[in-house]
Design brief:
Elements: E1 30-31, E2 47-48, H1 54-57, H2 69-84, H3 93-104, H4 119-129, E3 140-143, H5 149-159, E4 162-167, H6 170-173, E5 183-184, E6 195-204, E7 207-212, E8 215-219, H7 221-227, E9 235-240, H8 242-251, H9 258-267, H10 276-282
Parallel strand pairs: 1-3, 5-8
Antiparallel strand pairs: 2-6, 3-9, 4-6, 4-9, 6-7, 7-8
């Protein structure tokens, strides 16, 4: 059996926890760049999906008590996607706990099982089982290039979320942020003991607007490139739902290979309906 990465850095005096683990093995995954066509218009200079999802994004989702940041990230992405669809969903602590048990193997009242989890395991569970079970299933997920600001801005603009796996430099957590409006810029080497998951909900010329520990801050483009790429032992994905595809085709109907994306998702066990705009075009 593959050996787990070192346990996440969780000093007792910190008000929040982390909990992202490196993936044990790289799962089969699609890359967004494969679907970006030459005639795709550049994304707008800024976008922000956080305002409608304020209630969900303000939730800690137990990440002050447990190393469940990957699960908290699911809660924050679902909050953004459902708010954008007009019916914001906010998880209960019991639902978050159930997901941490199912995905991370956590057993309540057994602290030695509070060992975090990795994004790829969580994403696959989310796609095939829903979160919670049977609800809020995603159509799939694709890897995004953190070294290409145009690519991850396009992902965020089209699909309304980014899902980061990071190893935070020590300066970001000593001290930890205590209020919204913080900025994380390049600040030394990533620390494998500081594994953490954060969610992107918007961007501007300052960088990506992220949510972590119930607060909104900014991750600069330079920091995305350093910490959210393979070179920095990081990961970056965008989660795609059927609703997101339907809305995204209205933004970029001709510049994205929607048919191939759907075929690829279906090849991995999905069952996607063509976006409404494509159905109308074929009629």
């Amino acid at each position: 059996m593959a050996k787990r990465a070192r346990k996440t850095f969780q000093p007792q005096h910190h008000p929040f926890r982390m909990g992202r683990r490196r993936p044990l093995a790289r799962c089969p995954r699609f890359s967004l760049r494969n679907y970006l066509m030459k005639d795709l218009s550049p994304p707008p200079a800024s976008c922000d999906y956080s305002a409608k999802a304020g209630k969900a994004l303000s939730q800690l989702y137990l990440n002050d008590k447990l190393g469940d940041c990957v699960i908290a990230g699911i809660g924050h992405v679902v909050g953004v996607l459902t708010a954008g669809a007009g019916n914001q969903f906010v998880y209960s602590d019991d639902q978050i706990l159930q997901l941490y048990e199912a995905i991370g193997g956590y057993v309540p009242n057994h602290p030695n099982t509070d060992d975090g989890c990795d994004e790829q395991t969580a994403l696959n569970y989310w796609q095939h089982h829903g979160a919670p079970s049977g609800t809020h299933k995603i159509a799939g997920w694709v890897a995004v290039n953190g070294a290409d600001p145009n690519e991850y801005r396009t992902a965020l603009w089209l699909f309304e979320n980014l899902y980061f796996g990071l190893e935070l430099p020590d300066k970001w957590v000593s001290p930890m942020p205590t209020r919204p409006g913080f900025t994380w810029d390049v600040a030394g080497p990533p620390n494998p003991d500081n594994g953490h998951c954060v969610v992107g909900a918007g961007y501007s010329n300052k960088g990506v607007k992220i949510c972590t520990w119930g607060m909104l801050g900014t991750l600069t483009d330079e920091a995305v490139e350093k910490y959210a790429t393979t070179a920095g032992s990081g990961e970056l994905y965008t989660v795609i739902s059927q609703d997101a595809i339907n809305k995204a085709t209205q933004k970029a109907p001709a510049g994205f290979d929607w048919s191939q994306l759907i075929a690829d998702f279906d090849s991995m066990g999905g069952n996607l309906a063509p976006p409404a705009t494509l159905r109308r075009r074929r009629a």
